Amino acid sequence: MSGALAVILGGGAVGSYVGGMLAAAGVKVVLIDGWPEHVESIRAHGLSIATPEGETLARPEAWHLAEAYRLRTLEPSAAFLATKLYDTEWSASLLAR
After folding, report:
1. Residue 95's pLDDT band (boundaries 50, 70, 90)?
2. Are 8 and 83 in contact (CB under 8 A)?
3. If phi over 0 gives left and psi between -120 and 50 gives alpha, with beta otherwise, what is residue 3?
4. Residue 77 near residue 5, CB atoms below 8 Å
5. How far apart are CA 89 and CA 67, in angstroms?
6. Cα–Cα 20 to 30 A to 60, which of 5, 37, 41, 89?
């Protein structure tokens, strides 16, 4: 997937795991989350993922939800929606092109 870009909206457990593992595998990832502390922590320290196979430190690009306007400048290969069910409607609209 060289040169691929994945956008993940939702940086909770599922979004962080998928985005982190993709980033660790060499895919460029933009992870968008609504919690400023989480975004700042990823920016400062990366994303630590613990699995039965061991720990992985990934460094996806992290954006706060307020920075989602920047999506207009991207041409992602894939977009993942990893929000809570009650956020599906608005978050799917945000990812739609």
Report:
1. confident
2. no
3. left
4. yes
5. 19
6. 89
Q: Are residues 30 and 42 in contact, defined by beta-carbon separation less than 8 angstroms?
A: no
Which residues are 55's β-sheet partners? Answer: 50
Give the model confidence (pLDDT) of 26-78 as tens digits: 999 999 999 999 999 999 999 999 999 999 999 999 999 999 999 999 999 99
Question: Collapsing DSSP states into helix, strand and coil, what is residue 96?
Answer: coil
pTM of the model: 0.90
Q: Please report, for residues 18, 37, 63, the alpha-carbon distance to residue 69 in angstroms, rounded to integers and kept in the order given.
A: 22, 20, 10
**66-78 as b/e: b if 16+ CB within 10 A:** eebeebeeeebee
